[in-house]
Amino acid sequence: MAPETFAEREQRLLRQMVGNPKVAHRLKNGAVPEWMAVDKDRREHAERKARQARRWETEPDDPFPPRRPRGRHRAPRWWRSDWAASTLTFGMALAAGMVVSHVTALLM
């Protein structure tokens, strides 16, 4: 028996995979054009490059890891309230010191 050719083997395998929708499309419309395979390779190559770029972005050169973004379930910290509280505390301590020094000066 002579070995089967590429076209004979292809037809035999396509008949075995009749239930597959891609095979049904190929039997109905013919083989996929070459540009589709080239386009698929080009997209996969672009995705690989993007993945590699993201990998390099996530590996920083500095020894400190990047800060993780805070979740949306938390309210942002109001930085002015900390500043206002420390300023108010400083002002109260200053005023109390002035009162104490004034009272001490009057008593002497």
Largest sheet: none
Shape: rod-shaped
Note poorly predicted spans: none
Q: Rounded to an integer, what's the Rg over CA atoms?
A: 38 Å
Kindly state the number of beta strands. 0
* Tally of individual helices: 4
What is the helix content? 55-70%
Q: What gap, in angstroms, lies between the N and C termini?
A: 127 Å
Overall pLDDT level: 79
What does this structure look like?
0% of the residues are buried. The protein has helices at residues 6-16, 21-29, 34-58, 79-107. The chain is mainly α and 108 residues long.
Gist of the model:
With 108 residues, the protein is an all-alpha fold. The protein has helices at 6-16, 21-29, 34-58, 79-107.
Protein traits:
single chain, 108 residues, mainly alpha, 0% strand, rod-shaped
Please give the structural blueprint.
Layout: H1 6-16, H2 21-29, H3 34-58, H4 79-107
